[in-house]
Amino acid sequence: MDRNRRWRSTPKHLFEVAVAVNRDLHLSILSLFAERDLTDPALSLEQICSLLPREAADLELDDVRLRRSLDQLVEWGHLDESRNESATYRTPEEFQRRNVQWSLTGHGSAVIAALDRAADFLGATASLQTATIDALAQSVARAAELARHAESDAVEIFMEWHRAEHNLLSLVDNVRQLQRRLAELMRDPSLGDTVLRQAREVIIDYVTRFIQDAEEPAVRVARAVRLLQALGPAVVFERALAGANLAPDPLLGDPGPAWLEERHRRLEALEEWFVQGRGGAAPNMERLRRQGRDWVLSFLKVLELRRTHHRLSAGVAEDFTQLARVFARCRDDTQAHRLAVAAFELHGARHHDLGIGAQVGATVDPSLPTSRNPSIDINLDLTPRRHTKSTRRERPVRDVGKERASRARAEVERLQDLEQLRGRLLTQGSVRLSSYARLQYVQYRELLDLLCAALTTAPETDGIRRHVSSDGRLSITITDDHPSTRTQIETELGTLEAPDYAVSIEMRTASEENVARAAEPKRSLG
After folding, report:
1. What residues form DSSP beta bridges with 491?
2. Disulfide engineering: 144 pairs with which of 84, 228, 461, 490, CB 3.0-4.6 Å?
């Protein structure tokens, strides 16, 4: 709704330059002003005539066309026309070319920014990186942490929040780029099977990996946003405004309120992406992960439909090739005509076997309806025999109950193995990593995953890092994340050398899990 209101408030003539009759000349002039805006804010007709051929060498330029285009841009509000009081001239021609000058207006700069943005978006390549979400979480958490302390620098708060907004914008743009590229691939009929197979392998792997890797960073962003909400967005943004050092505007007044309003709008967008969507719906990041799976399924369906179409096309081509061979073996035109009638079904099916005897063909008139012709004997093979041989095998009916039971047994076995594996990693209180002298590789991998997850979380106020596994069953606590000694852990595949952290790994009880769930904010399924 806010975007709709802002778009509808834009001037009517803002984008007419892109669809005007002299579009190329108008855009070339705006491009010249954009290139010279910082060094030469105002340009005269003489300067434009000398500089514009470098920007648009393919256009035919003269003073009349240039002046007409400049007048049109002034009428639209993209350029401002003024007199150059410091210009010197000796002839009437020099007066006409030097006395008047033009400069960009705010609307003209907006048009240039919109065109640059559109060109960048159309030429960009999608780049979905979980590092962008990680950086977003760090910037939001850092801004909230700095705003908590009165002695912190306001400029640093402004820079951290600016990075957070930039990372969110980058994420949204790259998701749009990927959606656009996938839609183009699925609609392009000129792509061959080889290209589509390569695209299937690369894109499905790319999307699947992002869906899996983005879950943990998204949780960290949601945690950072809740931390900022608990502190109070107004506190953070007031400190950021002090560090923004906004330029005063004598015409529009204090820019601070509008800047703060925009920051709150950006925060709402951030909450919709990672905390809760509009109307209590799931956040956009969670819906994006589900949509990513839909992308994969849609891509596979399109590939299957294209393969089916190719198979049908190849079958039709083979049928026509065989029909051409039969035509070549016809004795005369009469037999060829009968074959054409039968092949393309130019009359009823009861006449398909008229070539058996000449006497039958003499007694039956194809121009008369069936009721007025004598009855004839039809070859019975025409009825039960299929015209085309089917090579498809009938799929056996799946026993859904057996498959469900098999998957349930496999899941139970996996959970039992996981419980046994985690049971060997549990500690009695806080211990050093050196207590794990030697581990099996699967144990080492589980321990390493827990350590990495815990070390990437922000420390709490007491300096302790805590992390809970994705299923909520296991918790790890690191009380000394800067040990002075190092240790080695042996596995059958090699040796890990790492700081000798003080860790505590415990299995959470059902009551602890229920308390943790109750502490989480409730979301409507909307």
Report:
1. 494
2. 228
